[in-house]
């Protein structure tokens, strides 16, 4: 199997707190990998180190064979690393379509070559992304008016606008009702399969993790304490003790 994303020996210390300690893993092509662990385990820090929002004290992140080194988040996005955040990142004063047009233009790094035909192409890309996430009817709405679950869908569409080969999702269903959560994850999984996107996500709802992840990595106090299929992880005594509170 080819690794789309390869993380080696990641370390991050915040003023004496070792938030991430020697974390290594591969994310394979088309795979769905969940990163789980109790609150404060280091999940978001791992995402920020991979996404470039934070720089590691040590270790390396390789995307499709290319070391990301000190690239900024926007440069990583252009390399095919998409992400959504635990806290929203939508421009609420814009319509849904404007939000998408903004990221589509940014993803193409538009210069003086902007023409009517480019604008039309972007509009149709925006439309097909909104359709893919089930928001095409709301194209002209102000994003501030959206229901919470629809904001999450818009964020997904925005992450997809860069044609990512790897998509990072930090608690994509946080704050949603249980039924809505399953619907969103089912949509994410279908889109990832259709677009051959490898998915790395965090999620505190274990039902969702066990239903939607193919492989699970368990973090505790910054360390990887277990790794395996959902059934392997579920049966791991250390995981049950540390994470499931047994
Ligand atoms: P998780 O996402 O698994 O809940 P985090 O990665 O957010 O965990 O946090 C891991 C640890 O690092 C926690 O102890 C948290 O308090 C600490 N931490 C995270 N971000 C910062 C920061 N910017 N400054 C200081 N400490 C931080
Ligand atoms: Mg977090």
Automatic annotation (TrEMBL):
GO terms for cellular component: plasma membrane. Gene3D superfamilies: P-loop containing nucleotide triphosphate hydrolases (3.40.50.300). Pfam families: ABC_tran, BCA_ABC_TP_C. Residues 5-246 form the ABC transporter domain. One of its GO terms (molecular function) is L-valine transmembrane transporter activity. SUPFAM superfamilies: P-loop containing nucleoside triphosphate hydrolases. One of its GO terms (biological process) is D-alanine transmembrane transport. Keywords: ATP-binding, Nucleotide-binding, Transport. This is Branched-chain amino acid transport system ATP-binding protein. It comes from Limibacillus halophilus. The lineage of its organism: Bacteria, Pseudomonadati, Pseudomonadota, Alphaproteobacteria, Rhodospirillales.
